[in-house]
Design brief:
- The structure is a single chain.
- This protein has 16 helices and seven strands.
- It has 333 residues and is α/β, with parallel strands linked by helices.
- The chain has two domains: 166 residues, Rossmann fold (3-Layer(aba) Sandwich); 153 residues, Orthogonal Bundle (Helicase, Ruva Protein, domain 3).
- Helix 1 packs across helix 2, helix 8 crosses helix 11 and helix 13 crosses helix 14.
- It is elongated, with a radius of gyration of 24 Å.
- The chain starts with 6 loop residues before the first helix and ends in a 6-residue tail after the last helix.
- GO terms for molecular function: ATP binding; sequence-specific DNA binding.
- Pfam families: AAA_lid_14, HTH_8, Sigma54_activat.
- This is Sigma-54 factor interaction domain-containing protein.
Length: 333
Amino acid sequence: MAHDSDPQVRQAFRRALLLMERGIAVLIQGETGTGKEVLARALHEHSRRHAAPMVALNCASIPETLIESELFGYSRGAFSGALPGGKKGKVAQADGGTLFLDEIGDMPFEQQTRLLRVIAEREITPLGAERSVPVNFALICATHQSLTHLVENGSFREDLFYRISTGVVQLPPLRERTDRAELVCAMVATELPGCDPRQVIAADVWPLLLGHSWPGNLRQMRAVIRYACAVKEGAQIQRCDLPADFLAQVRSQPSQPARSNVQNVTPIRQSKPTAAPVGEREDVLGVLTDCRWNMTAAARALGICRPSLYRVLRRLDIAPLKNQLALGTYAPS
């Protein structure tokens, strides 16, 4: 996340880390599958609390009857069926570290009141306990819902909303990210170590991967890439290797424009440099000409970010337009 190619993701990480280091609760907003938990873990690992544990709780996955004991724990004999020695809750486990509450919008209203008190007073009272226990933790929350709407319809406490919404960061959906090609390459490299992802994916598959709207975001892309890498029988991932539901989705949804030879210009980290594929220079020059040398538009057409495009230009020995004009070498096609 700290060195992500997409500028929106980098900015979200930098801002969230600054907020976290100032003791401000961070609220990560974004569609399902955009990597909210990945961002939360990256923030913890880069924070001053990285030596202590990060404790995560998905508020949507815990039954309402159990979430109180999961969050705050309980003392010995607190209720019938309780463990003999009691149980330390997630908040106490995160003492000194980071507490990550995923899908905070699904937390039961009654427990929101208790959480608000914990955030305000920095102490918890386990179920059945007579004394409060001080706690010190960084708080990161995440949601795919609009908490403002939940407050308006009365299912989320307004005072808790203001407590956790001071440090809001937004993760962009995959369809708005400029590094889709790099993400595909990274996922392929994970599934097929030692390969060159640019050559593994067939030319007619790239437009499908880069032009799709990806309603399931990173989670969906990862599932599609894993499937294709697992079932491919030849040297390349072909259209027939893609999941049937993905192909159906591609046919039913309008796609974003993408050039078919984009795999030739996808910068990926390699242990050693590789030679430029035949025709790569012409392909990049074609994109630049089509976009009238507008670097932002060209990077978007190629499915990469501007810094990546500049690296590609240096590697292919393509001089910036202003240099060509100054030397009189520019020859428009």
